[in-house]
Amino acid sequence: MISSLDVLPTFMAAAGADLLPLKPAPSHEDKRNRRRAEAKYGAYDGINLLPHLRGESDAAARTLFWRLQGQTAVRDGEDKLITLSHRPAQLFQVDSDLAEADDRSRAERSRAEQLYQILGEWEASLATVPLWGSSPTWNAESAKHYDQWGVRTEPR
To answer: Which residues form a coiled coil (predicted)?
Structure first.
């Protein structure tokens, strides 16, 4: 899988440059979490895709994570688990369900639980949560719009 987060490491490698060092962790962060996350996932979330683009290797099989405004997601293989602030976690098989319309979390409970565990471990490895949070007003507004969208058919 390829992510937009791969652009920086790929462009830096194409330019023959080393990745820039990260800024020091803010004083309020738990630096142990940052060190553990860097050891497990690397300092940057993206990877260098040049070997894949040159045909020297296959695209890296990896697990991708997202987190924004109290909503999270993990993609592993064809499975994607999403959590929203206003409903239970949902499991989709995105290779065959592009619109994410068929929630498989009940039918494949063990896979949903496995991905939920992986997502929780990733979140626990992150540096401290930002000092700001989502307001209940924003969460409610976001949920309202999300529910209005409904299922969208995607071109194939």
So the answer is: none
Determine the Cα angle at 114 with ends 99 and 46, to 5°. 65
| Angle separating helix axes 109-125 and 31-41, nearest 10 degrees | 120
Tell me the C-alpha distance between 6 and 45, whole Å.
8
B/e letters for 111-126, b = 16+ CB within 10 Å, e = fewer, are bbebbbeebeebeebb
Contact (Cβ atoms closer than 8 angstroms) between residue 5 and residue 65: no
Domains of the chain plus CATH, in order, are: 1-61 (no CATH), 62-149 (3.30.1120.10)
pLDDT digits (tens, 9 = 90+) for 90-136: 999 999 999 999 999 999 999 999 999 999 988 887 766 555 555 55
16 vs 10: CA distance, rounded Å: 10
Task: Give the neighbor-by-neighbor strand order of the sheet with 87-93.
Answer: 63-68, 71-76, 79-84, 87-93
